[in-house]
Amino acid sequence: MKKICKVFIATLSLVTLLFLLPCRIQAETPVRPIPIVNFDQLKPMLHLDNDSIYVINFWATWCAPCVREIPAFEKLYEQFKDQKVQVILVSLDFPNHLESRVIPFVQRMNVQSRVILLDDPDANRWIPMVSDQWTGAIPATLIYSRDTRKFYQREFYFEELKEIILPMLNQN
Amino acid sequence: MKRLSVLFALVFFAVTGFAQGLRVGDVAPDFRLLNVDGKYVSMADYPDAKGFIIIFSSNHCPFVVAVEDRMIALHHEFKPKGFPLIAIMPNDPAAEPRDSYELMQVRAREKGFPFPYVFDRGQKIYPQYGATHTPHVFLLERVGNELRVAYIGAIDNNVRNADQVTERYLANAINALLEGRRPNPEVTRAIGCTIKRVRAE
What's the predicted TM-score (pTM) here? Predict the structure, then answer.
């Protein structure tokens, strides 16, 4: 009787473990760490001098058009990651919302592009350093390579992004 | 044909882009917009005003919510000095349901706005000003019979945290006008929520 009991418990434990294991793995799906930077730390990423094309999108979880266009940037990343196109999503969420909003959003959307949170309240100082054309509205996107620099204060569809990227790829 | 008109609209936007809208020194157009109290508001209703603090504002934008108390304080500070505040809500509720006229009324009541909070129904006014986001400030001064833009941009240099403000751009600009000086800076920038339109598909 004791033996049966032991076997039963062991089996039960094993079954429970088997059930729990995938849950644990799912719960711990790694979100790449999202660094919090100030503008001086971000700035070098806006002026990299190499043979890649950089697509820098300024967004926030509270910005509906930003959220709407994230899949377009993700698709861009997915389709062009082998062709020296780098996508960086710069979140302007408040830093105290990193854990409660940004990370859950990135997880839910399964965002593969690189995500950074820009925490620099003196926007009047750094907005013109991103682009002279930027009034401060988001979404906003900077696309640059060694030879070209374009800034857009608008929402994108994937096809529109692709039409900007393709000629730049041909130039390179 | 639909594609063509979308293309035309895109080209039009690309060409005109940000060049549209008011710059410092330009004459600002008056408006007649529905306030949350059910009455229409125009700048012409204030013949004694030396100018106006026009702030394109909204219900939903966290950057607006962060400055609402400062907007109320600015109105209390500068209305007696001749510069009342008028908040204009430029979003299309079809694109952002949280910015409906009814919810504007709710928000104004909750916060006890002492200034008009008017609805740019049909989005006729904000493009004339060249507002792009909320909150977006246009400080106007009366010059003869006209209202001219004296300052465009942000309320101060820390939207998120009123305690950490070190430059009150808008207040400084009004004080400069009151002392007969030009605002410096006369244009600043801040992050805000894009003005919401229904997108042409």
Answer: 0.84
